[in-house]
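Writing this down once: the sequence line spells out the residues, with the fold written below as integer tokens. This is how one looks:
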Amino acid sequence: METHSTRPHLFGLLAGLFLAVGLCIASIVFTRTWTHLHESQVIDVTGSARKNVQSDLVVWRASFGVEDESLLSAHEKLKASLAQVDAFLRAKGVKEFTVLPVQIREITAREKNEGDETVTRRIGYRLSQRIEIKSTDIATTTRLGTESAALLEQGIALVSEGLEFIYTKASEVKIEMMAEATKDARARAEQIAGQGGRHIKELRTARMGVVQINPLYSSATSWEGNNDTSSLEKTITTTVSATFSLD
């Protein structure tokens, strides 16, 4: 009697176990099928846009200096030199420039004292004056570096610290280029979808990539984005990562 009552109970446990395993397998298959179906309904592409531009602002920095035993005398010399530099720049058509803070450095010499010990003695001062010019007249400003050699005849060495070329409309152009990059992404998506007999339905998501501003025709990239100031002509490149739904 005891054996007969145990067998139906065992069969019930086994049946329940098989049913549970079957449901788990069915759930896994359904999930995979649904995921595959979901992934097949969208396409991810990256579009890009390039634009060649010319800088519309130039920044030129230069410096000159004087030396004298007395700080006061050095300061007077510096003022006289600045007046000459000002006259030179105005003669070249530069109406405004920025005078940066004066830098003062002691001039020292090492010598032996009466006790035959090496000591440092101040013998004078060197005062340096930096100027900065920001101009949209790029042609005139870029010539200043070579034309400033004429100041040597007046005893002034105006040393150029280099030119920076800036494109001030970069922010406006980025917005236009984002739209162009999105169009490019859609065109690429349509090409890919067409090969599989599908059609693009709508844009789901779009994310703008890092903007690269490089010398003309350069394709250099960086994670932070390049912002070249060394060249007059530049190439701006931007990308857009987009997701489109499919019919």
About this structure: DSSP finds four helices and nine strands in the chain. The radius of gyration is 37 Å.
